[in-house]
Amino acid sequence: MNPKMKLNDLRKELILKLTPCSFEEADFEADCIIADLLGCSNSVLRIRLNEEADTALIEKAFEYADRRLNNEPLQYILGKWEFYSSEFYVGEGVLVPRPETELLVDIAVDTLKNNQNPICFDLCAGSGCIGISVAKAVNNSTVYMLEKSEKAFAFLNKNIIHNRVTNCTVTQGNLFDGCCWQEKADLLLSNPPYIRTDVISTLQPEVQREPLMALDGGAEGLVFYRAIAEKWLDNLKAGGTLAVEIGDEQGNDVKNIFNPYFTETKILKDYSGLDRVILATGKI
Fold first, then answer.
1. Alpha carbon distance 34, 186 (integer Å)
2. Per-residue b/e over 111-148, b at no fewer than 16 CB within 10 Å?
3. Where in the chain is the domain with CATH 1.10.8?
4. Average pLDDT over residues 278-284
């Protein structure tokens, strides 16, 4: 490690170091690490690359890279991540927000934006990235969020404070126990665990560092969808809407679970063209 180098030289060394674990994302991850340590955005970093990198920054950057090579998720290392143009604290014990999940927020905003004082339920809320984003985008809404994990629940509360939302209610509880709120919802959202149990061990090493509770959807990957159908739909208003994230090969199976309860169910693709959301409307 050269104690004197420009940021651009540091970036090049980090890319080489990160390539074994990050592959085509190594340049992006190097940018994220340096930008985080500088307290700037990746785009601002690009115009600062000719600046000298001080020793403390260099040492910290390589410390982060070593943690990444140990398969720690980059988001955990940085301690925060952007989702739907907002910043969310993340770390060990909470699922990392992913860009494909932003589709759920888009659906929620489109569903609720013309309603007067709408109510939204967010089940398996995790970091709160979905529910908080909805609450910020539809500020006349009330968003109820349910999360079982103690660690994730702590991040959820921290992110509510960080994002300065006041139209959220949070409860630590189990989805399988059924609804814990008196209100009925206009919209029910969830990004539940949906990976089959036998697939967990084949996931990328950094994904396996995320909480098993947030990944494992049972033998078929469908146990949470069945619980939502059986225990939560009575708390959806007549004509209400359900939107749940799914695995890209689960569309028909999850659609069939919800078909009996709605007048219309359909599979929506994410921005990469993969099946990602079941949207069900017109509760019977």
1. 43
2. bbeeeeebbbbbbbbbbbbbbbbbbbbbeebbbbbbbb
3. 5-70
4. 93
Location of each CATH 3.40.50.150 domain in the chain: 94-283
Return the bridge partners of 122, or none: 145, 189
* In CATH, 5-70 is 1.10.8: yes
For residue 64, give the nearest of 32, 96, 27, 93 by alpha carbon.
32
- Token pair listed for 145: 């969020």
- CA-based angle 196:202:205, to the nearest 5? 120
For 65-98, what is each residue's pLDDT tens digit? 999 999 999 999 999 999 999 999 999 999 999 9
- Separation between Cα atoms, residue 145 and residue 129, nearest integer Å: 11
Tokens of 181: 């709120």
Count helices and strands in the chain by DSSP H and E runs: 10, 11
Instruction: Please give the share of the chain, as a percent, with pLDDT higher than 90.
Output: 95
* The CA-based dihedral angle spanning residues 82, 26, 11, 87, taken in that order and rounded to the nearest 10 degrees: 10
Kindly report the CATH number that applies to the domain delimited by 94-283.
3.40.50.150
